[in-house]
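From the thread on structure requests for the teaching lab: each student submitted one protein with a one-line request. Submission from student K.M.:

"Model ABC transporter permease from Bacillus infantis NRRL B-14911, tokens only."
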Amino acid sequence: MKTENLQTQELTFPAVKRRQLTRKTRLSRNLVFLGLLIFAIMILYPLFWMVISSFKSYKEIYSNVWALPSEWHFENYALAWEKGIQNYFLNSAYVTGFSILLTVMTGTMAAFVLARYRSGWIDASLLFIIGGLMMNPQVALIPLFEILSLFNLIDTRWALILTYVAYRLPLTIILIRAFFITVPHELSESALIDGCSEFGIYWRIYLPLSIPIVITSVIINAFYAWNEFLFATVFINSSELKTIPSGLMVFRDALRTDWGVLLSGMVIASVPMVLLLIALQKYLVRGLAEGSVKG
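Reply posted by the TA:
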């Protein structure tokens, strides 16, 4: 009888242990899910409130803050578009597009050189680029203003484009270099044997393999350039050249701000980045994962 009891205990103990582990796993999963749900609500609810309030009248925004609009004012979007949001939208698209193009092109070339070659100058350049990540934009505001004034670039789109490129290049180079390091050297060596040039190796081998991290860099730079406010306010004076973040400040009045129209402009400004993130989400996750794990 004692032998049978010991055998039954040995058989039941692993089962009890597995049940306890299963309960702990379910509890931890539920806690993680609850935390992610709360975090999602904290992020999505302000966006939902902004969209709903953009269809309200001025009085209803204050008198009925949390409810749905009693009357949907679609004309708020037409008023926002007529008050100049279309010019701000085009300026933001122009500045963002050119800054992304220059940053990604220069960043991939610099990352190729830093990942492929080894020398004292390469190491010094890498340290210099890493130091650029620590530069605070607010600290360099006055020197940048003087430099741009010297070259007559104040109140031009290139004042923003060149500034955005300068500040986003270090992060772009570090991200892409981390991916380029993982490319096997055998590919480039076989290409050299076949007569391929260094630029051909960059263009035909490294660049096609790094599409996910390149798209990740595009998304990160697009969010920065599209939403940047400080430089766009200081370097641009004329209303015709303002981007969306600084242009929306024109919608505010000293006595009475039409918040419905202002929120409509904010919704219009948010739509391109939301669509870009939804369209390229899989590339963003894949690029960050491959760059962080392999690099």
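TA comment: The first helix runs from residue 2 to 53. The mean pLDDT is 83.
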